[in-house]
Amino acid sequence: MSYKFNMKKINLNSIKDFIRVNKGKIITLAICIIVFCIFAFGCTQSLYGMAESNISEYRKNLFIGSDDNIVASLTSGQREDNYLYDGKPGKLVDFGMLTVKYTGTTPEYLPSYTLTIDGQEYTGTMQFNTINGTFAADIGKQIKDNADVYLRLHSDLGDEQLSMPCVSCNFKIDYNSAFKIAVDQMKDVINSKIDDSGILNGEFFIKIIGDRQVDVNNIYWYVLFVGTDGTSNACVIDTQSGAVISSK
């Protein structure tokens, strides 16, 4: 017992002597480790913060309603006032985009709509999109996730009335989380677009995509990065797991 006690005492004294002799080196090493950790964390944070400042559009929620004749969707958020894919973020304004797709015959005349959101009505005439064959209207307003949304549509084909529940309320990954995942996925590309003065030469668009006519559950986050040099990169992110489905 005495022998073991003396060995422990000797080892303890040795450690104390080592610390006393190398105190300066130990303190320097500790400082270096702390600074490295702060720097590494700071780089990640600053990259995300820089990317966040260059968002030109984000769609934060999605409402969908349908019947035998139409599929209607409503998405809201903010987008740049002068909406261009030029790599240069602009001033953001609120939007609430209503889109209607007729599954059969298309009306001859532009349909009019009454969109009721939590009891407040928004009315107007929809415009035809020749690219995808849909009708669209922007009410210029962000919508709460828990809003009650109803649509009345009038056209030469007749009247339609729909309830439009919030589909994105069932997402486990919101637009903020999806953006963070995308920034991490595209960090090498993003870093390559930062010039010597620390300016990020590009902009981000956070969208919701999917074939809403076939399966409303087949919907994904789509984060697009467009550089001022005309290049683009994108990530498709699962709304439930946060997994990156594709990246290019």
Tell me what the structure shows:
This protein has 248 residues and is an alpha+beta fold. Among the domains are: 2-48, no CATH class; 60-168, Sandwich (Immunoglobulin-like), CATH 2.60.40. The protein contains 4 helices and 13 strands. The chain has helices spanning 2-21, 23-52, 175-185, 187-192, and strands spanning 55-66, 70-80, 92-102, 112-117, 120-125, 127-129, 134-138, 149-155, 158-163, 202-210, 219-227, 232-238, 244-247. A 9-stranded mixed β-sheet has the order 6-7-3-2-1-10-11-12-13, with helices on one face. A hairpin with an 8-residue loop joins β10 and β11. The longest helix is centred in the N-terminal third of the chain and has 30 residues, at 23-52. 27% of the residues are buried.
Q: What is the name of the CATH topology of one domain?
A: Immunoglobulin-like
CATH architecture assignment name of one domain: Sandwich
The best one-word shape is elongated
Mean pLDDT: 86
Which structural class fits the helix and strand makeup? alpha+beta
Please give the alpha-carbon distance between the first and last residues: 68 Å
Let me know the largest β-sheet: 9 strands, mixed
* Number of separate strands: 13
Element layout with pairings:
Blueprint lengths: L1 H20 L1 H30 L2 E12 L3 E11 L11 E11 L9 E6 L2 E6 L1 E3 L4 E5 L10 E7 L2 E6 L11 H11 L1 H6 L9 E9 L8 E9 L4 E7 L5 E4 L1
Parallel strand pairs: 1-10
Antiparallel strand pairs: 1-2, 2-3, 3-7, 4-5, 4-8, 6-7, 8-9, 10-11, 11-12, 12-13
Helix pairs in contact: 2-3
Which terms summarize this structure?
elongated; 27% helix; disordered N terminus; alpha+beta; 248 residues; 4 helices
